[in-house]
């Protein structure tokens, strides 16, 4: 029994934390995340010993080389999605944490087997350049900090994966792209949906001609946002409102489902007067896009309505719909064709693990990421035009 | 055995016709439609005779007074929907037919028990004024003929129900409204969905606050239109393309679900170059509406994509969706609230019977219809603005 008060407090805190975090995560994953490769080794041994008893059990190959990741910003997304996802990664492992809250970083380091010497804060962040264990930095900070921490990470000689939106403005995106070029490092934007099975299948279908020629894409993305004090509602930190945070999914989907770039757009916005949440950023913004082939998109984005997370690709001969379309898990796909409506179930995969492994593969094999900085810049450029169209009430050409 | 060739041909034709018509209609309804009140009487007698054997069978009351209807225009809608619907009416019965095709009219008269003397053509249509059996005229002609035949019907002293869109232009709508006032007759537009259970329940929910405050309405209405020679693709007869025919459902739904009138709108249109179907009218037109309370609507209308027939009302605390939303039967309703998604099933009712009985009730009780001429005029006025916005690329104020 350890009698030191600090340590006791630490244990209590950790237990509470585990309970909260563990709710949605399978025990096996927790074990894997906590003890890392040793768990896999032990599992292999145990399997060998009982091979005759369980001849059907297929054991995955031992992982090959993994890149080392530093997670910058330990908020909800990092704690509940990204850090647990490393247990599902084949090519990525977490080796460092960067946070302004040492207590949080210490707890998570213990949980995920991160060496305490690899915990950084925002002051000594640049010294990460001297840490050879870190190959890739994942920026999971508020939007307004993406550019600075990406550029600093690149200047420290590391590859960078930045959460979306890439930054607040096209100018910031360009700075990030320039910094990556100068440092000769990879820069990727975390367009998670491009790496998971449902969205990839929808893209394939839209391109294959199975639904005929795509005519219209409709998409609604939004939710009823809570706490008025959160960074998402602060213009300096967020760069904008629902469009930057959640409407970007509708925009990006319209682009990846068509594989075209919009040529013009219109938009209409509404923000409830007097709502304490929307003093600085917009509540709802709907927008229409026109693509070169004639495809039109009708999109809705809001911080003010009950959760919407959907798109439908409507072709001449059928349609495919994802709802939910872009959340972290539990996506569902319906296809309508030849008077038949069917639901298709695809393998359950961890989106973040797939995304991070893609980046690791690009780093290891010196390939360009599927969603490089230029992809983030394109969305930002279009989003600025959407704001312009909503303000002017005119069609904006791109 | 009747040896006259004409008669034999007639029988063959009629048999073929019955087979085609009967496909989607329950045998009981056919019987009711063919022999009218006598069938009800026979059913009553049969029930009385077997009362002790079937004590649970509830027999509906005998119908009261019914208004007499003339159907003008014997196309698909009249033959397959409206005429069969009289069997479900409590207050309406078909007593006259107006058609340019005597063969068609004769066959349908025989089928639905219409006295052959009550068959009119477009030349002697005005003499319907001398037929006291006819109370109401239902205009089921191509859009471009609505105004003329409505005005002539009103001038003949009859009440008129016109199919939607009410006419090709607001000016035509105004002529119809003026003619009704002058003749002191009722004028109603066939906004069928306002009279059937699913749409009425969606309206009630949207107004009740059960979903919180309505924020956004999205609706897609369209289908992949066939035969390039049909009247719907002829500007003179149709007045416009998909918007006039099917997009009007999305517009009208946005209005009846909000119970507000839009104050401004934007639109974006696309028509496939060289498509033989779209030489005169638009293929796809998407539009956005702003309502006074801040509700925004995102609507899509097309003659070029796989059937879409849907709307969703998204509130702060939940949503209700109809899909299909506005077709003749088989509507489905889903409600999302408190993290529960449920499908609600409402009584199956014949939309046309409900609509016609509403008109009959207004006539018998001298009440204003729920969807009078002014309602049709409002949609036409807004549709003209949607075309204007699509053309100019600017927000149009209303």
Kindly name the structural category of chain A.
Answer: alpha/beta
Q: What do the pLDDT scores of chain A average to? A: 89
SSE order of chain A, as H and E? HHHEHEHEEHEHEHEHHEEEEEEEHHE
* Number of H- or I-type helical stretches of chain A: 12
Structure description:
The structure is a homodimer of 398-residue chains. Chain A starts with a helix and ends with a strand. Chain A is globular. The first copy, chain A, has a 9-stranded mixed β-sheet with strand order 14-13-12-11-7-10-9-8-15. The N terminus of chain A is likely disordered. The first copy, chain A, is α/β, with parallel strands linked by helices. The first copy, chain A, is built from 12 helices and 15 strands. Chains A and B meet through strand 7, strand 8, strand 9, strand 10 and strand 11 of A and strand 7, strand 8, strand 9, strand 10 and strand 11 of B.
Q: What's the gist of this structure?
A:
The structure is a homodimer of 398-residue chains. Chain A has helices at residues 5-22, 27-35, 37-49, 76-85, 102-112, 146-155, 170-183, 197-208, 235-238, 242-258, 351-365, 373-392; strands spanning 67-72, 92-98, 119-120, 136-139, 159-162, 187-189, 214-224, 264-270, 284-290, 296-302, 304-315, 318-322, 333-337, 340-344, 396-397.
């Amino acid at each position: 029994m350890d009698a030191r008060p600090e340590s006791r407090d630490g244990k209590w805190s950790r237990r509470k934390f585990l309970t909260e975090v563990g709710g949605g995560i399978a025990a096996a994953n927790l074990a894997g995340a906590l003890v890392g490769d040793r768990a896999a080794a032990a599992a292999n041994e145990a399997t060998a010993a009982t091979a005759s008893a369980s001849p059907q059990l297929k054991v995955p190959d031992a992982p090959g080389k993994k890149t080392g990741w530093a997670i910058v910003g330990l908020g909800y997304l990092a704690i509940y999605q990204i850090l647990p996802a490393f247990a599902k990664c084949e090519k990525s492992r977490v080796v460092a944490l960067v946070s302004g809250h040492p207590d949080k970083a210490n707890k998570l380091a213990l949980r995920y087997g991160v060496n305490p010497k690899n915990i950084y804060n925002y002051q000594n962040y640049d010294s990460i350049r001297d840490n050879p264990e870190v190959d890739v930095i994942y920026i999971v900070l508020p939007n307004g900090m993406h550019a600075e921490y990406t550029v600093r990470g690149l200047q420290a000689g590391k590859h960078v994966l930045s959460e979306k939106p890439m930054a607040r403005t096209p100018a910031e995106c360009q700075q990030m792209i320039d910094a990556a070029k100068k440092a000769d490092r990879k820069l990727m934007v975390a367009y998670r949906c491009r790496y998971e099975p449902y969205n990839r299948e929808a893209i394939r279908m839209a391109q294959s001609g199975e639904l005929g020629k795509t005519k219209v894409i409709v998409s609604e993305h939004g939710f009823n946002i809570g706490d008025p004090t959160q960074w998402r509602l602060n213009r300096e930190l967020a760069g904008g409102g629902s469009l930057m945070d959640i409407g970007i999914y509708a925009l990006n989907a319209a682009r990846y489902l068509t594989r075209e770039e919009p040529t013009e757009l219109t938009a209409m916005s509404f923000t409830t007067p007097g709502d304490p949440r929307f003093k600085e950023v917009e509540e709802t913004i709907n927008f229409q896009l026109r693509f070169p082939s004639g495809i039109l998109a009708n999109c809705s984005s809001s911080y003010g309505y009950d959760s919407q997370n959907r798109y439908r690709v409507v072709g001449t001969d059928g349609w495919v719909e994802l709802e939910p379309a872009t959340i972290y898990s539990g996506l569902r796909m319906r296809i309508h064709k030849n008077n038949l409506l069917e639901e298709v179930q695809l393998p359950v995969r961890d989106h973040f693990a797939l995304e991070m492994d893609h980046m690791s593969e690009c780093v290891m094999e010196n390939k360009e990421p599927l969603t490089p900085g230029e992809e983030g810049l394109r969305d930002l450029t279009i989003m600025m035009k959407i704001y312009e169209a909503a303000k002017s009430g005119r069609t904006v050409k791109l």
